[in-house]
Design goal:
The protein is mostly beta strands. It has one domain. Helix content is 12%, strand content 39%. The protein is built from 4 helices and 11 strands, in the order αββββββββαβββαα. The strands form 2 sheets. It has an 8-stranded antiparallel β-barrel. It has a two-stranded antiparallel sheet with strand order 7-8. A hairpin with a 2-residue loop joins β2 and β3. The longest helix is centred in the middle third of the chain and has 7 residues. It is globular. The relative contact order is 0.19. Bound molecules: manganese (II) ion. The site of manganese (II) ion has 6 residues, from β2.
């Protein structure tokens, strides 16, 4: 772990839990299958946060343009701090002025399977992330099938690409973000969540 920081150290340091409704984390328990979540986050700039459960945390990337069902689209994904497992159910409003201030909507969620292989041998997800290439099969309500995350830059500007794999769930002509803007958790829109708080 970089710097020997405890799990969720960066996550907790950035937030004041007296002020934000976000979970502090720590109660999460692992189910049989790892989960994924994509949260639409109307912060300073609208983006989508793509998160995969790895052990007891959610590995996270901010995807400015959101996921695409078109295998030709390479979506920039910038790593962010690990989030607690409970974050997968977080939907609500982070107050203005707080870290990540703005509305959060659970755009899609479900479980995933690690598909990463090297010369036909399965690669554990932790190792795949370290090496900079992970392939997953998503079982969500909007996102299904294979997706690959590939690191193309390391260091301060570490950057990855999120790409739909070419399988029966690819839908090159469909704009899933526009078609299905609502929450997979509550059916609400960003506006409805914002005005309910
Ligand atoms: Mn975010």
């Amino acid at each position: 772990m970089p710097g020997g920081e405890p799990p969720l150290g960066a996550y907790r340091r950035k937030r004041d839990f007296e002020r934000t409704p976000e979970p502090r984390g720590g109660r999460g328990s692992a189910g049989a299958e790892p989960v994924f979540v994509v949260q639409k986050h109307d912060a300073r700039r609208l983006h989508y946060d793509f998160r995969l459960q790895v052990g007891s945390v959610l590995k996270s990337w901010a995807v400015p343009k959101g996921p695409s069902l078109d295998p030709r689209d390479k979506r920039l994904a910038t790593p962010t701090e690990d989030h607690p497992l409970e974050y997968a159910d977080f939907e609500g409003v982070i107050p203005k002025g707080e870290y990540g201030g703005g509305t959060v909507l659970v755009w899609d969620h479900g479980t995933y399977r690690n598909l990463t292989e090297d010369s036909g041998e399965p690669v554990p997800v932790e190792q795949a992330l370290e090496r900079g290439h992970v392939a997953v099969w998503l079982n969500g309500s909007k996102l299904r099938g294979g997706f690959a995350l590939t690191r193309f830059r390391t260091g301060e500007d570490e950057s990855w690409l999120l790409v739909k794999m070419n399988d029966e769930h690819a839908e090159p002509s469909r704009d899933i973000l526009a078609d299905r803007p609502e929450s997979a958790l509550s059916g609400r829109t960003l506006e409805e969540i914002a005005s309910a708080s």
